[in-house]
User: What shape does this take?
Amino acid sequence: MARTKEQNEKIRETRKEVIRNAALSQFVKQGLFSTRIQDIATEAGIAQGLLYHYYASKDEIFVDLINDALDKTIGASYSVRDMDTDPCEKIRFSLERLVETIENSQTFLDTCRLITQATNSTAIPQAAQDLIQEKRNIPYQVIEKIMEAGQKEGTIIAGDPKMLAIFFWTSINGLAIYYSTNKNREVKLDYRVIAAMFLIESEREDKNHAKDKTVFK
Amino acid sequence: MARTKEQNEKIRETRKEVIRNAALSQFVKQGLFSTRIQDIATEAGIAQGLLYHYYASKDEIFVDLINDALDKTIGASYSVRDMDTDPCEKIRFSLERLVETIENSQTFLDTCRLITQATNSTAIPQAAQDLIQEKRNIPYQVIEKIMEAGQKEGTIIAGDPKMLAIFFWTSINGLAIYYSTNKNREVKLDYRVIAAMFLIESEREDKNHAKDKTVFK
DNA sequence: GTCTATATCCAGATAGAC
DNA sequence: GTCTATCTGGATATAGAC
Assistant: This one.
């Protein structure tokens, strides 16, 4: 019987994830407030009433999603921070991976849009606002530190590292939203162009040529 | 009596502007859907029912605001396009003005946030979506053309000009939203750092020094 | 666990008095 | 023109049958 209880718990968690995915898709398209519980239930393939067996309210789902989104972003930034290379390469590598992710991961695009939406509104649940307050600056701080180190090293352009970090993330975020909302996708994203913008000229040329050899052999 | 009619029309238009300003402030804070007609009326200092003598619905106000916001952005980009200088200087000058505007104009910050909100949702009124579809790309195209010309001239960095244009606008937009939602304002915005990112190194140094003399004399 | 049916609430929009 | 009071519709959340 103890086993059955565990299994039930697992099934329940799986079901909650289906609901979260449905909710994410709806929130990104319609926003928190014009998404109805009915919309989420329909997309999740269950009856509207049943949703309340898993979540107490629409807000609760939203808070769960925001928390996931922030944790994923923080995790990604930590993995860059902990790389065993110089700052210049960290910037280049992270941009390469982020651009790749924009092109290939719908979840990443949705995550960017959800956080943008949440950051841009004071009407979201208090718990979500608290999470944002608590966690949102971490990725900015990580990149800021890397920019600072790169400037000391002489590989990153001059300027307030805090501003460069904001620039770094808002650009990625902006590209993701642009990419997500312009389905024709007529733009070819090239991480090397973006990376070059943060690097001083000499470094820029040298490393780009080195990169060319490995990436486009 | 014809005169009275004109005056009434003028008063009416003034009153509508008060309502639009109230609505903009609310939409930016709470979003279109969680803003109630009551909220707008209260901020405008009138009764809820009276609002319907000026606007038929909440959506109608929103569409008006989106139209204004898009026209302002387009107007700004045209004034840059029509400047009588080389592309490199156009980029530098427009960034200087835009950063200045971020720091001094609450309306500009609100406008950025409203457009971001609208672009990021499919639940907004159809008329607003049509306006965005029709007008939103113009500022991107204007900057794209300038980037292209600058590349031919040898003053703008390499890369798909379409991507550079997206980068240009998303960065400004991102800075505006960051600035708007982080009231501490601990970051000193410096347009020259941003401008330098779009310019090739030699141009970057020369022109920056020339600029220093005129701007910080 | 899952559904359908329903109670409750609240915001948009209207009506009517002043 | 302006207000208060009210109608109406729709969404959340609950209750109850299976």
